[in-house]
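Task card 7
Instruction: Convert sequence to structure tokens.
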Amino acid sequence: MTGALTARRPGTDPAPLPWLPLALTVALLGTAIAYPLSSGSARDAVSWTIVLLGSAVSVSHATISRGARTGAGLLVLVGVVAVLFEALGLSTGFPYGEYRYSDMLGPTLLGVPFLVPLAWLMMAWPSWVLAARLTSRVRPARRRAARVAGAAYVFAGWDVVLDPQLVQAGYWRWANPEPGLPGIPTVPLTNLAGWLLAGLVLMSLLDVLVERTSRLPRIGDAAPLLTLGWMVLGGALAHAAWLDLPGSAVWGVVLAVPVLAVLAVQARRGRR
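Output:
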């Protein structure tokens, strides 16, 4: 693998607008706090703003940290894969199960609202960045497979928290929501299987993209990691305290435990 995929300090050459991803992240976190405190059309506006800011965090961080080719490639790759998977799901029910979007999400492409690939973009880059960190000590021969699997796990786990919230908001509905994970009666298990499959495909392609286009990171990864942590764990808190979604709150914490455990072990080893 190239040096861009290994755990190193940011490059010494100056990055343009190094503050931009973190500034967008701060705006995203403030907007996310407003979600459970809003309702109706105001909540819809908050949802759009969260996704737009989250996708901007991903593209800006990939561009500033790894280079313009990586940022542009990320935007195109995730957009294409998201539309193809979602269009396939809408027309055949594979791989997620049968579902339909409401008109609340606005204009569509092949039946897929524009907001949806932007949501994938918000989720994909932080998932890959976290997986790269989690697998930085894996043997080089096994690192790519571990990184792709870890990124797909994080990607699908994020959706476990997000999907019940957006079903509750009325953005889409499942024809057959059961059986689902215990405590989540509105989303079928086929959706989780579909996200794992989509995640494996997307992260395999993204891994190749980063390997072929990325330079040595010029800024740290605080912005995408903070985005991911806040949206998953902060989302779980919002589900438990304000949105009456205790099942997805519990699952968000449960799925985060292995990730936090690996990070704790890495931190302990780093202090030795």
